[in-house]
What does this fold into?
Amino acid sequence: MFKFTKNKTLQIGIFIIALITLAPLLYIKLVSADDLVILQISKWPYWENAYLGAVHQGRFFFLLTSFFFYLPYYFDSIIWTKILQFIPIIFIFLGFNKVISCYFNKRKAGLLFLLIFFIFFQITANFNIFISYHLYFTSSIACLIWGFRHFQLYFKYNNKKNLYVSCILFAVSLLFYEVNIVYSFFYFSLAYVYVRNEKFSFLKNISQVFKKFKGHLLIILVYIILMFFWSFLHPSQYEGNQFAKIFSFANYFKAVLKFINGALPLNNFFGSFKFFLDRSQDIGGFNPLTFMFSDTFPISSYLKLLLIPFIFLSLIKISKNISFSKIYLGIINGFLLLVFPALFLSLSYKYSTSQMEHYTITVFQFFGTTLFFMCIFLWIDKKFINSYWVTILSRVIVLIFLLFTSLAHDYANNMYANDLKLSQSRFTFMDDFIKTDYYDKIGNKDIIYAPSLWNSVAYSEESKRLTEQGFNWGYFSNLIYNKDRNIIRDKEDLINKCNLINSKAYFYSFVLIQAYQTTDIMLVAAKINKNQYKKDSFFSDTVDVFIYSNNNKGIINYKTNLILSDSSSISKYNAIIIKKDDLNNKIWHKRIENKQIEIQSINISFMN
It folds into this structure.
């Protein structure tokens, strides 16, 4: 009874740690430019999208799996999106828990794996498929790991049903991503471990392995044939799955090392001090020695600190019942899970030339890192198990490392999640602004010059890319809100489209200003004609200011340009106090009327 109660307590503790660790994912919405593109094209006819994607990237499987790209965006509900984001993630965790428990023949091994994973989990500065592509890649990995789990069950119970399920799940996983072929190595290795017999020769053992592996092998062969046939008909235009045109070993190994480094523990902490210094809201700024005492540090992370020692010390004791051979094989498999995808993708033109920092190419890298370090910890504990004081010392050292890593990762994860949230707040604001009467009254053919809508104050590169890749606000307005507006970014387009030589020409100027460390946003809108456009400055007698803030009172400052009798001009500074009339409104609106208001000079400071 006590054992049952203790195991349940450990499971509940790990569940609480998982909630604390993954909490930042709850308020991360659109995290990459690809998300915005998918959001838009999800409104198109499915087969048209799927076919265009399959042709563009030379990947036939997009005809079948594009649905998983678009499904999280079909409904305008963050709850819907988050449910679809977390369902495959939960299945991934459960799958790895089962696989690791089966491998070590210890249920607690699976729990120890999850504990270390949640300590090591990182929201990286760049792409991370736990927060990007809310359903697509995670569904693929869930199929892959559960296919492996059923392969384990096939050998354990000699049940053909498990073999068929394993083959089906493996085939489905390949339909999402061709890189998943590299993980067939682990299926093959599992088969070899179970069928090897010292009485037989190596070749005899291999032939037995192929008999067990032939279903998966047939799937791989058919898949490769289909890939080559489709890519022959439709050569890929996507640099991510094209081999480097001019191959360089230096660039290749540099890319491999960066991909590996992106999945190592403390990578996002020690590589982000400049970011922390820039973004810290503490009075004294960021300090790498005292960051855990920050006023902004979540209290839940301290609860995590209390749980980790109890759970870790209860689970690490399994080392005495695990053979060194299994630990060594676990270290090798963890290393391969970390390295394999990097070796493959670093051959591509995109990844060998761009040299992305903090970029993790698959969730398997995180799990590989976890398995590698878990086996290292088990090896240390088993190595010194016969020396009481050395065992105590080694466990304390490992525990200190885990506690510091937990603190550092929680701090960095929350900082990066808040940074991503800053960039997303533009879309939250625009979602409400586009619904206003002011926006409705703008004509479909009217020009809106709004380069600042593409700018982000976010620090991380991924946040800045949110509106950089294949995104057009006018197209977005038409597709999502059915409001056709001509929103442009470049000044040359403004000059060409408005024909400012014509005195009757006019356009709308939108200037979006976002706070540096909060989600406060102000958008200044005005109608401009030729006489109100001077060099790089715009002037208007009527300016509308839209404010998105939790504050209810502020001061708007602006300059007016007064023309003197000798045709020279002077600037006059003005200030008006504004107050939110309806506290229930998300956006508050203030119209300013004065002579020659300089639009770019307008700013706001809040009083509460």
Observations:
- The two ends are 57 Å apart (CA to CA).
- The chain has a mean pLDDT of 83.
- Strands lie at 447-449, 486-488, 506-514, 521-529, 533-534, 537-548, 553-563, 569-579, 587-606.
- Residues 233 and 363 are 31 Å apart (CA to CA).
